[in-house]
Amino acid sequence: MHLSSLLLCLSLGALVKCAAESEWCYTRCEHTPSHWGDISGAFCGEKRQSPINIDTHYVQIDPHLQNFTFVSFSSPNAIEYITNNGHTVKCVLKDNEVEVSGGGLNGTYSTIQFHFHWGDTEYQPGSEHTIDGQRYPMEMHIVSLKKGLNVTQAKADPEGLAVLGFFINATDDEDTSEAWSKLTSTITQEIDTEVPVSHDISINDLIGNVDLTKFYRYMGSLTTPMCNEAVVWTIFQEPIIINKNLIRHFSMKTGFSDVYRPIQNTNGRPVFASPATSPPWCYDDHCFYNQSFWPVLPNSSCAGERQSPINIETEKAEVDEHLVNFAFKKFDDKHAFKYCTNTGHTVKCVLKDGVVEVSEGGLGYVYSTLQLHFHWGMSHNSDGSEHTMNSKRFPMEMHIVNKRKDLTLDEAKQTPTGLAVLGFFIEPTVDQKSSSGGHSGGSSGGHSGGSSGGSSGHQETPSTSDMDAWKKLTNYFSALQKISSKVNVTEEISIDDLLGKVNRAAYYRYNGSLTTPTCDEVVVWTVFKESVRMDNNLMVKFPQYAGYQNVFRSTQSLHSRKVYTTKSASSASGPIIRVLLLASLCALFI
């Protein structure tokens, strides 16, 4: 944050504070951000200032923004000391040890320090950059100096400095990176005290699982006086996730807060995005890329002729004798769940690598189970499944996503049979379904092909699911109220527990796509005929805690595809059995 003043001090060989450091502040002094332009020699009122709001609707994909090359980002001993300089917490690196290049940068840069910006973390987020107006709790800046330039030349060069910006988001998850715990333990309230780093902490440890291929690029400035317009900015799309208590340490231990510069005008500057960066999309009209515009997203297949979900017309489904019973491996493992996360579009629960598998069932390959997620409407009394059955929509739908075991994920996304998704409709338990009035001959009628009844006269059966397992799972949702928040699953829950007694021998099969951008047409779909049952009070937790509603894609045209169904009528349940028996009886009397 104080790179300009730091470099000036070093270039003069000074050991005392530079004047610029004492002339400005964020609050409670004469030269607050709105007056930084008044500082003698500062560039803070010019036209290429940072930070900015990145409006993702108008970013331009730049094919030259390929992967970075990081040197010694994994070194556990690269940090020389940590200091509180009165404006931020800054980590100074050892000379000539850490470097960055690639990523569209014009040359190699020596990384010299990284520092942080934060707000009043209890109430006010404090990242400097924003994405579509959203401000994160914190932001980390990794500052690098272009090799071959001295300090004076770098400050005068439009590309003399390269700064990597990482958003930092908060989670209630206590199992956070050990590196962040070590880092925050060294923060001191003593200004200008250099605290040597005795812990092993690497930059990669702090970055964690952020996808470093997804980033934005623009030309800007330092965000503190003297605001030199000499920075090539890289802002990574995915945030670093750390425990909220560790974020609090920055303001609590330093004694100051709201250390971020307000957003500056872009003044017509373009913002570019790496090819791997996906523009934000949504289901409704609260963003530019709603469902109508999914086909124009980069690398999108959303306008293809093999899209999902579809409406399944049960009478037109063709019996396929190859659709035999599945083989489920470790679906009963009560420790297979790794964590759940709020993606901003759904609640997704990720499984441990290489534990759960599914095969047979006409799939032709062995598939590794990766994750399961959900689609829902406005509440438990409205319909939000993606697939429909005879034009009837169910309250919710669960998708269990599996990848062919013989392929990498990238390969699977380019192979017509690369993914296999098991789709399960979700309805309220029988007694609640009847009392709610929403799915017993009401707006949704009797769901042909499910286990609904009500006005159809079907004799109701007990709940098919283990409600204790659903209680355990949804209890985690209170920790997922922020987008990108994550919580580890420690309770004993298996997929079998969630599915309960649902008949997995009765299902429909068709070839389709992912139901979210980029809608890759690589999915072998299985949609089961019998619904999973869930308590109303648990169903309502999905929209309540996630914070959004109606997260389902509209049904797509079948085009020339066929829908197949399992052979045995005895495998079906509920109204399926009744429909097939009626057809058989009618045939006997014709």
Write the layout of secondary structure elements.
Blueprint: H1 3-12, H2 19-23, E1 53-54, E2 60-61, E3 68-71, E4 79-84, E5 89-93, E6 99-102, E7 109-118, E8 130-131, E9 138-146, H3 151-156, E10 161-171, H4 178-185, E11 194-196, H5 203-207, E12 215-220, E13 231-236, E14 240-243, H6 244-254, E15 272-273, E16 311-312, E17 318-319, E18 326-329, E19 337-342, E20 347-351, E21 357-360, E22 367-376, E23 388-389, E24 392-393, E25 396-404, H7 409-412, E26 419-428, H8 430-436, H9 467-474, E27 486-488, H10 495-499, E28 507-512, E29 523-528, E30 532-534, H11 536-539, H12 541-546, E31 564-565, H13 575-588
Parallel strand pairs: 1-8, 2-15, 10-13, 10-14, 16-23, 17-31, 26-29, 26-30
Antiparallel strand pairs: 3-6, 4-5, 4-11, 5-7, 6-7, 7-9, 9-10, 12-13, 12-15, 18-21, 19-20, 19-27, 20-22, 21-22, 22-25, 23-24, 25-26, 28-29, 28-31
Number of helices: 13
User: Taking all residues together, what is the mean pLDDT?
Assistant: 86
Distance between the termini: 85 Å
Please state the overall shape, judged from the principal axes of the Cα atoms.
Answer: elongated
Number of strand elements: 31
Q: Largest sheet, described in full?
A: 13 strands, mixed
- The rounded Rg comes to 28 Å
Relevant terms:
about 600 residues; alpha+beta; 13-stranded mixed sheet; 31 strands; about 15% helix; disordered N terminus; disordered C terminus
